[in-house]
Design a protein that fits this description.
Elements: E1 4-7, E2 26-33, E3 38-45, H1 46-50, H2 59-62, H3 74-77, E4 79-85, E5 91-99, E6 103-105, E7 112-125, E8 136-147, E9 152-162, E10 170-179
Antiparallel strand pairs: 1-4, 2-3, 2-10, 4-5, 5-7, 6-7, 7-8, 8-9, 9-10
Length: 180
């Protein structure tokens, strides 16, 4: 079972939409692998996203903290730490999250007001080619641009670089391209 150790001046709470957030049933994300430059579109139920599940989204799904990437009180927290094991048990993360000031971000759906959140730290992963199933440390940076109006992230970026000869690098981008 996933566990989370949260260290901050206030508790991290899962994301929640505001009462004015329109109900969205389905979100489509364009997923791009930065090393192969291969893109695909993934359609996801917003019910799954609200549960912290983004199937088909690569590291952004597999490394998601319990409760999701953006705490509902992120702007009040400012900065926080999260230590957890992933739901599938193949990775452990020790990340520090920080929220930036609201800004306007150009998206495929037009400009959106977003709350930017950045996580930096270390991820230990198993299943690395040649690693024999042992955990291999990766330097990790995850960036999320969350739209309070939509109640959804509109863009993600992830970058992980192995710190051993058993290299498993990742560089992925997701952009919200449509909602229903």
């Amino acid at each position: 079972a996933p566990s989370a150790t949260i260290t901050s001046s206030a508790a991290v709470t899962p994301p929640a939409t505001s009462p004015s957030t329109p109900p969205i049933a389905l979100a489509a994300f364009k997923v791009t692998d930065g090393f192969t430059n291969v893109s695909r579109t993934v359609e996801v139920s917003t019910r799954d996203i609200s549960k912290g599940f983004l199937p088909g989204a690569g590291d952004i799904d597999s490394m998601m903290p319990p409760g999701g990437w953006v705490p509902s009180n992120a702007e009040a927290l400012g900065r926080w730490s999260r230590t957890y094991q992933t739901v599938d048990g193949t990775s452990k993360a020790d990340l520090t999250g920080q929220v930036g000031p609201r800004l306007t971000l150009g998206t495929p759906m037009g400009p959106r007001t977003v709350v930017p959140v950045t996580y930096e730290g270390w991820v230990a992963r198993t299943g690395v080619t040649g690693g024999g199933g042992s955990f291999v440390q990766h330097r990790a940076i995850f960036r999320i641009w969350y739209s309070p109006d939509l109640g959804l992230p509109v863009k993600f970026e992830s970058s992980m670089l192995a710190s051993s000869p058993y290299r498993r690098e990742s560089n992925e981008t997701l952009e919200l391209v449509a909602v229903n």
